Amino acid sequence: MRYRFAIIGLLLTLALVESGFTCSFGRGVRFHYHDRPGVERDRFLSGELGVLETSFDRIYLYVAYRYLTGRPLSEASTERLEAYWRKDAPSVRIDHSVWGRAVSDVRQEQITRDGNVRYLYYLNCNPNAFATASATLEERSARYGESSLEVRRWIEAQTQVFQNCARGASIPDEPGEDWEPLERADRVYQIAAAHFYSRSFLEAAERFAEIAEDEDSPWRDISAYLVARAYLRQAVVGDGPRGDYLARAEDQLQRVLADPEREAVHGAARSHLDYVRTLGDPATKLAELEAELLGELQTTFPRHWLDYLRVVPRVTVDRPELSAWFLSLSDRSEDVLGEAHRRWKENGEASWLVALLMRSTASDTWLDEVLAGAAEIPVESAAFWTAAYHRARLLLDAGRIEEARKLLDELPAALSLSDHNRFEGLRARAARSVDEFLSHGAMVPVRVGITDGNSVFSHPGDGLESLRDGRRFLESDVVRTINRHFSPDLLIRGARSEGLPEHLRREAAWVAFSRAFVTGDADAAYDAAGLASDLAPELRASLADYRNAGTDAEREFAGALTMLRFPGLGPSVRDAAARVAPLDRIGDFRDTKWWCVVLDYDVERPRFVEGDSNQTFERLTRLKPAPIHLGEMVLRWSDSHRDDPRVPEALHLVVRATRYGCNWIAGGEKTDYGDVSKAAFDRLHRRYASNPWTERTKYWYR
User: Fold this and answer.
1) Is the pLDDT of residue 678 over 90?
2) N or C: which end of the chain has fewer CB within 10 A?
3) What is the DSSP letter of 349?
4) Which pLDDT tens digit goes with each residue over 611-647?
5) How far is CA 350 from CA 243, 378, 383, 469, 485, in A?
6) What pLDDT was estimated at residue 122?
7) Count of CA atoms in the C-beta half-sphere (13 A) of 498
């Protein structure tokens, strides 16, 4: 048993190191799905497509195409698709057994004709290899005993075999003359497998062929199949005449299938025979697969769908209809979209109109045609919601705001929260006032959780339950628009808007104060401070000091002290999950604190924004990071007002900000807070040595 655990540990370590495994997660919010439809799967499979996007997983777009072209799914075909998603089909089930998930990708460099390096990635050791090894280990342990010499030798050799999964070559020694036949057969097979995994495919093919002829080897049937696998690998990632190796692989697979005694590997042989034929004549194979996919689905759907995805990129001319449609969703070249336009004009199919709508821009010559076509699609059509959404989007992009507003006002209720939020985003773009903009821009997220930068995962105990209570948050594009174009006065109007829930009005008020304060808009800062005091009671005492200050210098110090006391304050509205800690807490590393560097966003300016919206933003872009900007304000006041009892606290908070504030990395270097941090630290310890705030400030920070 101890040998088994040792080998498992070795393999798992190998897999993690080879994969470059890292862990970096933050909080994330999604207001609509990018990779799948918003409607429930059963509704989608029945033809309620909702709004389609080109970014959806291909399987969903395939289902959509069937409905858009009048090929609905039968009950049996629907079950085949459900089985695919459940991974119920035997052809895709994987047993991960005790050998774990130690699989490895291999990167193969090839020099192309133009001299560039091309990289191929393929799964070298698939999970079934580890499952087979696990089962064999169990059988040999039962036969010889777990601590036997035979089992130890088997494990040592199998370790070498799997070392070739990531790099090679490591080939086990030949079997001893005095070994019994079963142990000799195992070792001969292990040697052949090691050559296969170390990319010596032709050597592996010869050795597997010899094993296949050995009537006494338990590996004879699988080896007959692996001869073809070795030739196939040579054809795909090796050197030499590709066509010749494909022909050898096809011939060997035909031999295996013609031998009834090798029935155990017939299923795998059939699958690879399809693949070999796909590589040899991809156009014919693609046409065959499309005919299957657009008809009544069979139990072979999971395998044939994967075959289809593999063969599609290999056919570059005369693509059949589904493949041509998929291409139109991913390629905006003039030829591809021109072909989509031609097909739509010829047959009038909704599928091609939908493709054009999803890929078109306001500058395309056929804009008026596709808008008119979209307007004719009835509400009961599977294409209706996609056509309505992209029609409204294109009208807004073209500056035809009133037409877009009329269309959006006349739409029935969307099919899902995700689609509802998509349309709300368009309504926000068409807004005539701050109230309209914020009312439509505040949405209930479809998902809140931890993100790896792409997907968002929700699970109990992630600390984000408070964000999943059905409350509305500002959508990401709305947040960027506010941060780029809103003056403090517009934020104040937003904080007074009845269309916003209270928690968003609170945030609008304190962002208005912060933005006005750091950009020097004294009147707006004074008004926002009063509003924020009403909406956020925890700020009331500090903002009262700010409003009651007798001079501009004292007001500057009071404002800086307020912001330092509340790390959650900043001049920008934040995405929904950017901060969950209370305003007065530092929070964890994911919680945004104050500000760092204000980023520019390429977002359109709302029509209701008057005057020069760049004035406030340009001032924000000139700000130093918060610890320096606020720290310098405090240092100025502390030098001229040493007797102010608030100064020790303020100096301590400056040092704290240099520890926890953002360290913006620009040009490869971090912002150095050392000068401000040490200056505040020295003043605190020199002038207020016995103050409690001094005792709490033991270090300064860079």
Assistant:
1) yes
2) N
3) -
4) 776 788 888 888 888 999 999 999 999 999 999 999 9
5) 41, 11, 7, 39, 39
6) 52
7) 0
Average pLDDT over residues 364-388: 95
- Please say whether the beta carbons of 38 and 419 come within 8 A: yes
Asked if 425 and 436 count as a contact pair (C-beta separation under 8 A), the reply is no
pLDDT at 19: 33
Q: Which pLDDT tens digit goes with each residue over 415-434?
A: 999 999 999 999 999 999 99
Q: Is 427 exposed, middle or buried (0-12, 13-18, 19+ CB in 10 A)?
A: buried
Closest CA to 362 of 323, 392, 339, 342: 392
The conformation of residue 430, written as its DSSP 8-state character, comes to T
Q: How far is 615 from 621, CA to CA, in rounded Å?
A: 10
Chain-centre distance of CA 685, in angstroms? Answer: 49
| Spatial distance between the Cα atoms of 440 and 431, rounded to a whole number of angstroms | 8
Q: What is this structure's pTM?
A: 0.77
Return the minimum-mean-pLDDT range out of 227-231, 369-373, 448-452, 489-493: 448-452
Give the integer Cα–Cα distance in Å for 421 and 429.
Answer: 12
Average pLDDT value for residue range 244-249: 93
Residue 124 has φ and ψ, to the nearest 5°, of: -75, -55
Arithmetic mean of pLDDT over the chain: 86
HSE at residue 402, side-chain half, CA atoms within 13 A, is: 0
Q: Measured between alpha carbons, how far is 605 from 119 in angstroms, rounded to an integer?
A: 43
Q: Which residues contact 316 (CB under 8 A, 6 or more apart)?
A: none
Q: What is the mean pLDDT of residues 596-610?
A: 81
3-state secondary structure 601-623: CCCCCCCCCCCCCHHHHHHHHCC
Alpha carbon separation from 339 to 324, 343, 350, 352, 596 (Å, rounded) = 9, 6, 15, 10, 48
Q: pLDDT band at residue 27, thresholds of 50, 70 and 90?
A: confident
In angstroms, rounded to a whole number, what is the distance separating the alpha carbons of residues 543 and 528? 10
Q: Are 507 and 572 in contact (CB under 8 A)?
A: no
Read off the tokens for 177: 């003359």
Q: How far apart are CA 576 and CA 388, in angstroms?
A: 28
Check whether the bond before 169 is cis (ω within 30° of 0): yes
Give the helix/strand (H/E) hosting 76: helix 75-86
Give the closest residue to 573 by CA, choosing from 607, 545, 599.
599
Tell me which residue of 533, 600, 535, 595 sits closest to 570, measured CA to CA: 595
Interatomic CA distance for residues 8 and 252, integer angstroms: 34
pLDDT band for 113, please (50, 70, 90 cuts): very low
Assess whether pLDDT exceeds 50 at residue 557. Answer: yes
Cα–Cα distances (Å) from 582 to 302, 536, 539, 566, 627, in that order, read 49, 11, 12, 9, 19
State residue 602's pLDDT score.
Answer: 81
- In whole angstroms, give the CA distance from residue 607 to residue 431: 8
- Separation CA 7–CA 161 (nearest Å): 12
**Where does residue 276 fall: left (phi above 0), alpha (psi -120 to 50 degrees), or beta otherwise?**
alpha
